[in-house]
Known about the structure:
Order of helices and strands: EHEEEHHHEHEEEEEHEEEHEEEHEEEH
Strand order of the largest sheet: 5-12-13-14-11-17
Bound molecules: flavin-adenine dinucleotide
Shape: globular
CATH superfamily of the largest domain: FAD/NAD(P)-binding domain
Distance between the termini: 9 Å
Largest sheet: 6 strands, antiparallel
Strand content: 15-25%
Radius of gyration: 21 Å
Number of helices: 9
Amino acid sequence: MTEVLIVGAGTGGLSVARQLSKNPDVNITIVEKGVLSDASQAYNYYDVWDKNEMELIKTDVVGGSSLVMAGNLVPSLVDELKEYGIDITPQLKQLREELQIDTMPKTHEGKITRLLHDASSRLGLEMQDMPKAINPSKCKQCGKCAWGCPHGAKWSSLEDLKVAQKNGAKLITDEEVTGLIVEDNKIRGIKTDKAKQYHADVVVLAAGGMKTPKLLRTVGIKAGETFSVDPFITVGGYYKGAMQDHEIQMNKYIKLPYIVISPHTSQFLLPKIRKTHPDATVDDIISLMIKIPDNLKGHVYQNEVVKGIDFEDAALLARGAAIAGSILTEAGADIESISSTHVRGAHLIASARIGEIVDSNLETEIENLYVADGSVLPEAPGLPPIYTILALSRRLGQYLADKL
Length: 404
Ligand SMILES: Cc1cc2nc3c(=O)[nH]c(=O)nc-3n(C[C@H](O)[C@H](O)[C@H](O)COP(=O)(O)OP(=O)(O)OC[C@H]3O[C@@H](n4cnc5c(N)ncnc54)[C@H](O)[C@@H]3O)c2cc1C
């Protein structure tokens, strides 16, 4: 039997586990820092990095950030990956069927989403339907995707866990991997915060774009010299009784060069809106998210993360904000109330890039040490990355299943 350790039971890690577990000659153990929780409680496990007006968001829990994602499944970086000899189209097709990715039916289109769609059209902007991994028959349109879906309607990586466990994979929770064991440039195992060591023939790092590079640095691999996050802001204003927070978030989107604009409610806008409308509540917010692909200028060092936005990022966000402001006022928002949140990032990526830190099989320079999470993306897509992370990880799972 070949022993395989997967570090992190998140999006990438569980996708590898699911595919690899089809090989009966492999023993899989997944070691996860977080606990196993019901998806509806995922909001309790947010771990936010917050510095210099920039906030980076992830969840440390079994299932990782897949539990709180908005359910947007858009292929990204497909052509860029071909330049590295990687074709993920078979995995994208497999995932489309497994996750039943589709746009939501008209019955699930919120009032404000429709209003913003129509306002965009009048301004000559096409707002298209977002492909989602949400089961419409279970979805109650509560707007709580980012809290963890309370109705079990949204797909999450817990589905991959179920399959992997059924095929014999073991899950260890509440145990943080702190180091790697390497001998003669070959991976031999991992060390954890419980002062334990686990030995294996193959290790797959899937601790996410902000943790995997730190683990790689413990064995001398200079990951984390790059780091992107697809920064976003939410721009919004006052619209009496909008109730946008009770609609499916990001159910439609406008795709412009380097800018994505999508209906999305942020409670951070409320104190700003109250400057012009003191009685406003969350239900009176109408707002749009603006997301851009950033450059690779962030860093993830052993004891420090460095990430800000530069002039180019700021210029793109400002352009997106101006367009969003026009749509919002056209839709009926009070122009004097319109403001923006601070800059946030929820796509923690490109910190152990393909072509730099890992090869096209996602293997590092240390034999049998692989990476399967957002950190391997070669650049920021400025689009939802989870579909591509899942596809790359399924591809690695199949590669290892064949190889072992
Ligand atoms: C609120 C929110 C909404 C989003 N919406 C979307 C969306 O709609 N569409 C989309 O494409 N993307 C979305 N994203 C982004 C997407 O969810 C992430 O890019 C993706 O889930 C990241 O996958 P990953 O495998 O890199 O990391 P994760 O899924 O975060 O997995 C990392 C796992 O490793 C564990 N871990 C960390 N350190 C250790 C350690 N030392 N030892 C053991 N375990 C460890 C963590 O607890 C976690 O379980 C969203 C993100 C957020 C936060």
